[in-house]
Predict the structure of UDP-glycosyltransferase 3.
Amino acid sequence: MAVTQSSLQKHVAVLAFPFGSHGLTIFKLMHRLASASPNLHFSFFSTKKSNDSLFSAADIPHNIKPYDLDDGVPTNHVSTQHPLETVELFLKTTPENYKRRLEMAVAETGRHISCLMTDAFLTFAGEMAETLDVAWIPVFVAMPYNVSAHFYTEQIRQLLINGLEEESMVRIENQTLEIIPGLSMMKISDLSDEILMGDSGDSLFSLMLSKLGSVLPKASTVVMNFYQQLYSTDLLKDLKFKLPGLLNVGFLTSQLPESDADSTGCLAWLDRREPKSVVYIGFGTVVTLPQHELVALAEALEESGVPFLWSLRDDKVKELPGDFLERNRGNGKIVARAPQTQVLGHVSVGVFVTHCGANSVFESVANGVPMICRPFFGDHRMNGRVVEEVWGIGVKVEGLVFTKNGVVKSLELVFGHEKGKKMRENVRLLQETVMDAAGPGGSATRDFNILVEKISRF
């Protein structure tokens, strides 16, 4: 970008949603934008815990500065371990916590905000941008199927109400969403509670998400953590109609961060295994596996005899069956944290056992690894449907719950069945597709360059 007096004054405020991999996703996008636009200044707003992790890398561009937000957690707070507890506490402080830090960033830099780039979940950011009289660029981390469902929440809820009056709950849950463009393969049971229930109840998170369908069309540009080539024709056409400024910049977390060190020796351990022979197990930072499922998974791994690498928090290791670690010391490795991108890219990994979070699915696709899916909440069930039935690159566990027999069946299918061979071929083809799109002349590169131009011009 040519250096101009106006470009030197640009100040992009980046507002993260500091939970799961949301913070990392928008951080990675900002990192790329800052490297491509050295004359723009970027202020990044997230919680201290999130910032400490994200900014621990040594290669942060000079034109990025972090600001710590109040996380809303009271002093001496005793956690209930509910997955949305910290989210709800955080949302009680919004949007005021963001506004205070924005004012600080403007005062410290001497530059007014020229553009507001935020996680799309922060639906109040549209109003903030309007007040500041600047462009709003929401970044959607989840798959576009999830975005589409938020545009049709009223129709979905009416479908549910009508069905409940006429059919049993089991039949309603299995009803497909044929009325929604691009979602004909989805079932009502795949949808999150936030979509089905909306703003009913007292959840601030549900209330925030219930506004997605109405606020996203007001954005200057909507950025998707996705590739244009992976949409169905109907889905892409419908979203482009609703979001004319839609940009698909590709998977934002699949590129290997230089700081992703292998302090636990996972890669050296994988080096000693046969190609495509290892099961990698990881459920992200939010999901906690119930003890009975953790035990069932461990027993299935032991019975199958398949080599495994398991990313499992230290406090959960004690819930494993007695002597499990000793009995499987030669065949398995358990670590508190694995460098997931590097692990999935290793030639020895043959399948990824995952909760089906969007970024985990994307990283698996980017590395050509099929999946065994155990969805938990949010968009996980929709993602699992895409993995198994739309793309044909994985299988959901029987009954969507880990049992010893169910996991053994899934492992046998992936490693020994003809369907497993087909999954490997399908994911290899998807990997090639996204690599082409991410290349110098690819669609994701083109859309990223358009985004660079836009934030430089706003």
